[in-house]
Structures are given as structure tokens and as C-alpha cells.
Amino acid sequence: MTRLDRALGWSARRRDSPGVACGSAGALGHTTQEARVIEGVEIDVGRDAVWLRSAAPLRVLASAVVGGDLDVTRHVVNMHVRRGYDSADPGADLHAFGRGLGIAEPFVGLMTAAWTHEARIVWEEADGVRAGAAATVGLGVPVAAGVTPPVAWQPSTINVVVVLDAELERAAAVNGVITATEAKVGALAEAGIVTAEGAPATGTITDAVVIAWTGRGPRVPYLGPGTVAGWCLARAVRQAVLLGIPRR
């Protein structure tokens, strides 16, 4: 039993092979997933969070509630919050949650009102490059970037966490954010998601992306969708988001 099991009372886990990671129901009715495709890296999924953790430090580039300024971390936590969540200090809430998991070091922390136990994990591999994506998809307020006017904050978030077993240059990580976003938009288009005004949605009002990499394996100077590594990343993100879109 891991620290996450003990901290949150999760009672079942399943290790999935490359491809789509699926959940299994535990004795307490919790759904959990564990994916361990990259050596030393695990992704756990449950009702309270999606938790990516690594035995060795990961390089990271993130838009996040906490840890967005980090270059290195061993933990990325996507914490579930209730609908209507309104805290004066979300960062403090995330740090408290992290301490409950036993995390005693800087970490990247996200929040979502989407059901984290319904997160989807997809892995892709080609030419020695492994890429995984974990996505939680909340579509309360879909928007079209550059079309939808500014709106008041509401719980509506697509959070995408990507991890690659490769050595990325910093510029490649920025490319990865672009590629992941393009793949997310493609998934929304494929699913026919539109805004309240009927425009094709490009995301929601509070989306976040995390790119993490091991710093070992193939060297990747560029991570556009036309590269092998970018192709793996894009396929993983597109499928994770597409599978994570709530049925209507």
C-alpha cells in the first residue's frame, strides 16, 4: 500500500500496460488507477487527486496553482475540489493536501472540479521515446480563445499532465505546451464541443498544462507535432482528453 492509499483510504489499484489506462472498483467504492510505464515514474488516480510521482527528480514546465516557478520536482498533484470551491488561499489548501500525502518538498499543484477518478491516462511510444498524458476534463464553461469575451471565474478546467522519458531542451518543453494544447483543441473539435454562442471550443477558462521529463534517453531539441516525440505527446494528449470528455 502506498502513501496515497494510506492518506486517502484508497483500497484497490491496477497496473496498466501502454495504451489507455482503465480503472478498477475498490472495496470502498473508490476507483483507482496506477500507471507505471516509465521506470521510476507512477501516476495514481482516485477520487481526491491525480498524483504523478517519480523516484528521481523530473524537469518540469508548468502552469499551475503552486509550483509553476519550479524547474525540478518529484511530484505533480491534480487535486479535486468541490463545485463552488471558493478559497482565499488555494495555494495553502494545496500545500495542506500535499502534506497529507506525505510530500515534504516543493511540488507542482493543480486544482479541478472535474472528477479526478475519471481522469484518463494514455501512453504512446515510438523510436525509444515514451510519452504519457493524464487528463481531467471539466467543461462547465467552454470558450473559444479570441472569440469568447472575458468572463467571471467559474469551476471549468481541462488539466493535462504530460511526462516524457527523454532529455528535452528547455525550448522543446515550450514546444510541448504548444503541441499539447493543439492536441487538446483537436480532441474538443473531434467531440463537437462548442461554446454557449455555438463557436468551436478551444478549451475552458482555467486550463492548465504540465510538461515533465526524466532527462534521460533520447535527446529532444524540438517537440513539435511533426517530430517523433511530439507525435507521441500529441497522440497521448488527444486521446486522454477525448476519452475524458464527460458524456452528455
Counted by DSSP, the helix tally is 4
Order of helices and strands: HEEEEEEEHEEEEEEHEEEH
Counting DSSP E segments of at least 2 residues, the number of strands comes to 16
Main pleated-sheet profile: 12 strands, mixed
Cα radius of gyration in angstroms: 17 Å
What's the end-to-end separation, in Å?
36 Å
- The whole-number mean of residue pLDDT values reads 87
Q: Give the fraction of residues assigned to helices.
A: 10-25%
Overall geometry? globular
- Provide the low-confidence segments as ranges: 1-18, 21-32
Structural class: alpha+beta
What amount of the residues lies in strands? 25-35%
Protein model, in words:
It is built from four helices and 16 strands. The strands form three sheets. Strands 1, 2, 3, 4, 5, 6, 7, 8, 9, 10, 12 and 15 form a twelve-stranded mixed beta sheet that branches. It is globular, with a radius of gyration of 17 Å. Strand 3 and strand 4 form a beta hairpin. Helix 3 packs parallel to helix 4. The longest helix is centred in the C-terminal third of the chain and has 22 residues. Helix content is 23%, strand content 33%. The N terminus is likely disordered. It is of the alpha+beta class and 248 residues long.
